[in-house]
Amino acid sequence: MSSSDSSSSVTFDPTRPPPLNYTIKCNRRELAIIVFFTLIFLEAGCLPLILFYSIRWGAHLSTTTNLAIITSLVGTYSGYKMARRSWYLFISDSSHQRRPLGASRFGPDAFTLQIGLAMTGFFTPLVVGSSLNPGSVHTVAMSLPCFMIAFCFPLLLTGLWPHKLKMPFRVSSMPPWTGLPPAVYTLVEDVVAVDGGGCVEFRQAWRIRYEHSAVMRRIVRVTSLWWGATGMVLAAAFIAIAWTTSDDIGYGICWGLPWVWAMVSAAITVWFVHKELLREEENWASPEVHQLFNLHIDTSADEQIVEKQVTREERHEVV
Where are the transmembrane segments (predicted)? Predict the structure, then answer.
């Protein structure tokens, strides 16, 4: 019997959802998140804008030199973070605690694949546009919109058809040919387990919460659709603007407004998730909320032991 079959038979206290047993309010996690997003914003938001206009209007260097300088600096911090994440996931002594459920040592999680595709979309126009002679501002301006398209497309696709799309290879903890949940599910699982240090315990608790809560499944699908749809539509608009306006206007819009979209969407997401979690807790006993759904995730014997520990802790906590 797979662990997903056994988990679906677990009966939790009817007055409370299964806890995730994870918080950012410890081990300086909240500070680390703030530092990470601040540095990413400085690297791929502020730095390209400041350098482009200061060099263009102040130093009066050629467009080719201007774009070459920007390209040489963008990606340093994000590259370091990706290398550090790969170390945690594949090489470190604790990598077995962070990898997806049922995955082999060098099986990448879904976030690695999705962010790798998005970074390819980001760097391709950046490198190509700065390599031309003269450099193409229109092409370089497409970097963030192309990142948005590559990152948001899986969110939109899996949000529109949840648990309908299947892949011939493993997608994070989902075995091959298993219906994929909305991509926010794997993003949360992978980021918290690997980058946030939640490890396999969080992967198990997150799976159990998703399987037992109709509200959590709604949260995951709605947020996937929101980020996917708005990201795709706005990215297409930004690319059109990049090629139909002057260099100064197109570059500024394409490197600035995607960050406005991300910040506004993040604020809306936090508000929506908080509201839905309150509704989930208040109405947990209702059959429309406490409703089982099997993900059909296969796990190893060691991971099944962790699952039993997680469910035991949840039962103890509700008692």
Answer: 31-55, 61-80, 106-128, 140-161, 225-243, 249-273
Start-to-end CA span in the chain (Å): 28
Sign of CA dihedral 83, 24, 172, 225: negative
Average pLDDT rounded to a whole number, residues 227-247? 97
Residue listed under structure tokens 């809306």: 268
Taking a C-beta distance cutoff of 8 angstroms, is the pair 222, 179 a contact? no
**Tokens matching residue 87:** 């170390």
Residues 67 and 137 sit within 8 Å (Cβ to Cβ) = yes
Torsion sign over Cα 22, 27, 28, 34: negative
* Residue type at 97 in one-letter notation: Q
What whole-number distance in Å separates Cα of residue 191 and Cα of residue 92?
17
Domain ranges of the chain: 3-318
Where helices occur in 166-318 by DSSP H, the ranges are 183-190, 199-212, 214-244, 247-282, 301-318
Bond before 134 cis per omega within 30 degrees: yes
Three-class secondary structure of residue 290 per DSSP: strand
Tokens standing for residue 121: 């979309």
Query: Using only C-alpha atoms, what is the Rg of the chain?
Result: 22
Give long-range contacts, CB 8 A cutoff, 24+ apart: 64-73: 64/130, 64/132, 64/133, 64/134, 64/135, 66/135, 67/129, 67/130, 67/135, 67/136, 67/137, 67/140, 68/130, 68/135, 70/126, 70/130, 70/140, 71/126, 71/127, 71/130, 71/140, 73/43, 73/47
pTM: 0.89
139 closest CA partner among 156, 163, 121: 121
Cα atoms found within 13 Å of the Cα of residue 316, Cβ hemisphere only: 7
Angle between helices 301-318 and 199-212 in degrees, nearest 10: 70
Taking each helix axis as running N to C, give the angle between helix 199-212 and helix 214-244, from 0 to 180 degrees, rounded to the nearest 10. 100
